[in-house]
């Protein structure tokens, strides 16, 4: 997901201005993705240039209000319809690190794996506390939180797998 | 046992458990030190054969160490007579195993009441407390069912009710989520967590990171030794782990506001 599609999705709901869009963006991603206001204005500028949003004027407080255009709505629908591809995700730094660790001599892979595992488990513990404490959580918020729980869990499982394979190779 | 005990509920001191002799000696646990305070839940993780279940058996007095001490509320288990140890196990320690260990010929209520009755409590009173314990785990009204008439999740919750009945100050759980589905597993963990929040000390053996995450601390075993620990007092929390959590916490308030739209 990009800030671009986040803004289009918010404007699909109703017209809005920069600061408001930024606040709503952070809300809908469970505050896991902070964006700065400069990013929001730059993105709005590009969206306007490409004809995906348009200025509708100013409100009483002088905020410049944007609305989504027809081609903007089409771009948003296309985006929802397309799967997220691997190429859109950042490279997995941990996998690269482990790959280097088993290649370069003198790295204690077992210690590296354990350090990373403890870190991931701490994260998982924090996320679980949040999940348990939230009495009536907002759906969007819990989905994002659960995504993080699954990711932390997957990382730990993968680390178990790495450890097993490395031990087998050495033993 | 004194109720006003303020030290750790259970302390494992330099615990070693070996099987066999000489060349054939296998050391299941080596020099383990672990304390669990009232209100604390500690997860024990590690690969198969790392000593997790041995640790739990020693902590609960089901097995005796080759060297070192198990101290439950200030009492050295090695100094207790067999009878006194059996009594301590019956009254103060709750066990939850993967395979439930319910007695098939007894109803859920009778299974749960059993430890109290064995301890000399009158049947009617024990059944009443059992009914309350079943309610605590979400099985109110199912006391008359036999284990074979219950689902896996219900059986496991019955086993937990039995483990928690009375004033158990130490709860030991060995893979309590076993083959349960994830929703039932979460419910089981929440019961365990709630009991610890209410003042019990708990040790949870699990291979599921997701369930270990309910604990206050996680101890990692490998080849019978502690190779790592997280969540211990005085240990600085990893910064990166806090960042998303803090951000997500802020999201709770935002989420509510967004819900009003």
UniProtKB/TrEMBL annotation, chain A:
Gene3D superfamilies: Winged helix-like DNA-binding domain superfamily/Winged helix DNA-binding domain (1.10.10.10). Residues 91-165 form the Transcription regulator PadR C-terminal domain. Pfam families: PadR, Vir_act_alpha_C. InterPro entries: Tscrpt_reg_PadR_C (IPR018309), Tscrpt_reg_PadR_N (IPR005149), WH-like_DNA-bd_sf (IPR036388), WH_DNA-bd_sf (IPR036390). SUPFAM superfamilies: Winged helix' DNA-binding domain. Residues 7-77 form the Transcription regulator PadR N-terminal domain. It comes from the Bacteria. This is PadR family transcriptional regulator. It comes from Actinospica durhamensis.
UniProtKB/TrEMBL annotation, chain B:
Residues 239-261 have a biased composition (Low complexity). Residues 232-261 are annotated as: Disordered. SMART domains: AAA. One of its GO terms (molecular function) is ATP hydrolysis activity. GO terms for cellular component: membrane protein complex; plasma membrane. It comes from the Bacteria. Transmembrane segments: none annotated. InterPro entries: AAA+_ATPase, ABC_transporter-like_ATP-bd, ABC_transpr_LolD-like, MacB-like_ATP-bd, P-loop_NTPase. This is ABC transporter ATP-binding protein.
